[in-house]
Design a protein that fits this description.
6-stranded mixed beta sheet; globular; Rossmann fold; 38% helix; 26% strand; 242 residues; 9 helices; binds magnesium ion; 10 strands; 2 domains; 4-stranded antiparallel beta sheet; binds adenosine-5'-diphosphate; alpha/beta
């Protein structure tokens, strides 16, 4: 097994005397889709914000590509991208114009070719000239994903990428993400509180509760360790036992 792309050790974030993330450790391997699962308030977004260097950890370390994020920030973040279904963007622009803005911000070369590639990969042909404001929620999710992969990142952090989607479209997005992962060898960390989705989509799952890792492994491993038939039941069992 190759060395991990992302290595997190004893990561902790306190806001005043409240501990949002409490000494968590995990790694993300090359080409892996890792799911960060947990109820609202578990510490998922706080974890992603630390991985993106947006907030400073209270304790612990983050290494990516073998380097320390606190000392190699720019070099690391150049190879990383992020998407959230809650991010806003210039809604008056068309889909294609939005992608051009991102391409320019990152100084990409061969912009038209790269935009064509991503539009094809995420099956956005029929709405590439549509004004962003008029997109359906599934189309909007595809655009946010397209913006995130346009820059050819090696690691993608997705905070609730399927949050506002109906189940049908969420399934489609999952397939597209798996396809991107396959073709680009990308590593993905994504968060969700939807256990069915996690089960279907992740190679491995980190189960967070009140800032702590309460279980990790493949969905199968977690279910058999807790003697349950699905993740929902594992979750209920953990909640009952506090
Ligand atoms: N800037 C902040 N100041 C104080 N508390 C915060 C701040 N950001 C997050 N929290 C708290 O930390 C906990 C974890 O939040 P978050 O990481 O957003 O959880 P999740 O994404 O899993 O729903 C929550 O109780 C939240 O209220
Ligand atoms: Mg969150």
């Amino acid at each position: 097994m190759s060395s991990p792309i992302v290595e997190v050790k004893n990561l902790t974030k306190r806001f005043g005397d409240f501990t949002a993330v409490d000494g968590i450790s995990f790694e993300i391997r090359r080409g892996e889709i890792l799911g960060l699962l947990g109820p609202n308030g578990a510490g998922k977004t706080t974890t992603i914000q630390m991985l993106l260097g947006l907030i400073t950890p209270t304790a612990g370390s983050i290494h990516m590509f073998g380097k320390d994020l606190s000392t190699h920030r720019e070099e690391i973040l150049n190879q990383v991208n992020f998407s959230s279904s809650y991010i806003s963007m210039p809604y008056a622009l068309t889909v294609e114009e939005n992608l051009k803005v991102v391409a320019r911000l990152y100084g990409l070369s061969e912009v038209p070719r790269r935009i064509d590639e991503v539009v094809k990969q995420l099956e956005m042909e029929e709405f590439r000239s549509k004004v962003t404001r008029k997109l359906s929620s599934g189309q909007m999710t595809r655009l946010t994903l397209a913006k995130a992969i346009l820059t050819n990142p090696k690691v993608l952090f997705l905070d609730e990428p399927t949050a506002s989607l109906d189940p049908d479209i969420a399934h489609k997005i999952r397939d597209l993400l798996k396809e991107v992962r396959r073709s680009a060898g990308l590593s993905v960390l994504y968060t969700s509180h939807n256990m069915k989705e996690m089960e279907a989509m992740s190679d491995r799952i980190i189960f967070l509760q009140r800032g702590k890792v309460v279980a990790q492994g493949t969905a199968q491993e977690i279910m058999s360790r807790f003697g349950q038939r699905d993740l929902e039941e594992v979750f209920l069992k953990l909640a009952r036992e506090g």
